[in-house]
Each structure stands twice: as C-alpha cells, then as structure tokens.
Specification:
This protein starts with 9 loop residues before the first helix and ends in a 20-residue tail after the last helix. A two-stranded antiparallel sheet has the order 1-2. With about 100 residues, it is mostly helical. The protein has four helices and two strands; from the N terminus they run αββααα.
C-alpha cells in the first residue's frame, strides 16, 4: 500500500506504516478479560473460570448439559495454573564479589 505507488518515497512510506501500526494496536488497550484483567485494570474479584466459560450458554443449553465440557476445561485450566509463590529473599553475602559495586 505504501510502496506500490510512486506518490510516496520509501521514507514517507515507512513513516506512514509505523503510524498505521501504532494506530492499529491502540485498541489492544481496551481488551479486558474478567478473570485476568487488562493493561490498566486488575481482574474482577467475582470472576471465576466457570462463570467465564459458561456465560456463553443460555439456561436451556445448561439444562441439557451442553456446558459440562466448558466446566471441565475451566477446572483443568485452574489446576494446571499452579499456585503463586513468593520469591525467597536473597541471603546476605550471596552475591559474588565481582557483582558488588
């Protein structure tokens, strides 16, 4: 698009391509996942994996049991995520002598 016509020089084409790239990636800031959060907001406290994945089904589909695979997937995802572990403090004098400034 920017390099197909002689109307733009290579420099101007690259500049417009960079501007287009930035403009096209701006909407990513608006993406929010209730259980994981977004760029600017934390996750919702009431969101769970089950509620997130079963929200795609209406009550009729839930009564037929069509949501059961989604619940199994949510349970599997939660069990595979692991627990959050705080990092251990660095013991004193643990750094090698060449690392100290």
């Amino acid at each position: 698009m920017f390099f197909m016509t002689p109307a733009f020089s290579i420099e101007i084409g690259l500049a417009y391509m960079g501007i287009m790239t930035m403009v096209c990636t701006l909407p990513v800031m608006l993406v929010h996942f209730p259980q994981w959060g977004s760029m600017f907001f934390p996750p919702s406290k009431s969101a769970t994996e089950e509620s997130y994945y079963t929200s795609e089904y209406d009550e009729d589909e839930k009564s037929k049991g069509l949501h059961q695979n989604s619940i199994k997937f949510a349970e599997s995802g939660r069990s595979e995520r692991g627990r959050r572990v705080a990092s251990a403090p660095t013991p004193p004098n643990a750094s090698p002598p060449y690392a100290s400034v």
